[in-house]
Amino acid sequence: MCGLINGVIMSSLTIENMIKDETLGIRLDVIAGHEGLQKEIVTTDINRPGLALAGYFTFFGARRIQVLGKGETSYIDGLDPWARREILKKIFEFDIPCFIITWGMQLPTDLLDMANEYHVPILRTQLSTGIFTTLLSLYLERIFAPEESIAGGLVDIYGVGVLIMGETGVGKSECALDLIERGHRLIADDVVKVKRLGNSLIGSAPEMIKYHMEVRGLGVINIREMFGIAAVCHHKEIELIIRLETWGKTKKIERLGIESLTEERLDVTLPMVIIPVKPGRNISVIVEVAAMNQRLKKLGHHSALELDQRVAEEIRRQAMEI
Predict the structure, then answer these.
(1) What's the whole-model pTM score?
(2) What's domain 148-307's superfamily in CATH?
(3) For the chain, first and last CA: distance in Å?
(4) CATH superfamily of 2-143
(5) Residue 97: what are its φ and ψ, rounded to 5°?
(6) What is the mean pLDDT of the chain?
C-alpha cells in the first residue's frame, strides 16, 4: 500500500507482505497468530520488550515490531505460569503488530495460545538477534523511506550521480544519450524515482520504463539492448543537480563558479549547477566537466576559490611593493 502526502510517496507494509518479500532476505516462519498477518507495520523502529515483561509499561513501544532474543525468551520461560499469563495479557492488550523470535528459540505453549487468541502473529528466525535486527532495520528504512518522482534524467558520470533537470524540450534526453555514448551509465530517463536513505538521495527508474529513453525524432529506444549492460545502472546516489535552461531565460550566469548554488529535495540539500543551453554549445561535455569538478570539491579542491585566493594574494603582494 502507498499514499501520497505533499507530493511525497509514503509506504505501508503488512506482516504477510513482509514475510513474502524476497528483498527482506530473511526466512520468517509463522508459528502462531495466523489471523493477524494483515496487521500493518507503521514504524521503522524495533523494540525488545524486556521492561514490559518486567511489568514496566511507561514509554512502551507497543506499535513497533517486538523482538524476543535469548534473554527475553529465557525470562518468559522462567516465570511462574500464572505470573506469565498476567504479564503477557497486559502486553497483548496493546496494539502490537507482531512478535519475532530469534535464534530459533522455543516458546511456552500458553504464549502461543494467547497470540492466537489476540490475533498477534509470532514469527521465528534462526538468525542471531544482532544480525536479524540489523537486517530488519535496513529493510524497514528502505521500505518506509520518503520518496518522490522527479521529471529529469539520472546519469552516472565518473562515479558521480548527476540528476539532469530542465523544462520540456530543453535537451535533457539528448544530453544523457551523448553522455552514454561517451561511456557513462544511464539510471533513469524522463522520470526518476528518488528515495531518501539517511542523508542521501538514491535515484532509480520506474520499473515500467527502466533502461528506456525517449529521443525526439527517434522515439523510444532501449539503452541496454543498444549499448550493452555496461551502459545502464539500477540505482545511484544523487550527488549533483544539473539544471538546463534556455539561453536568455537564465537570470544569472555564473562566470567564476565561486558562488555555490544548492537545491533541496526531500530535506536533503544538493549542489546545483545551472547550464544555459543554445545551439553550438556541447552541453554533454560541460555536464561531464561539472561532474568531475564536483568530485574535486568533495576531495577538498575548489578551483574557483583557489584561483580567487591566488588573485587576492597577488593583489596584496603588488600593493606592498608600491
Answers:
(1) 0.76
(2) P-loop containing nucleotide triphosphate hydrolases (3.40.50.300)
(3) 74
(4) HprK N-terminal domain-like (3.40.1390.20)
(5) -70, -45
(6) 91
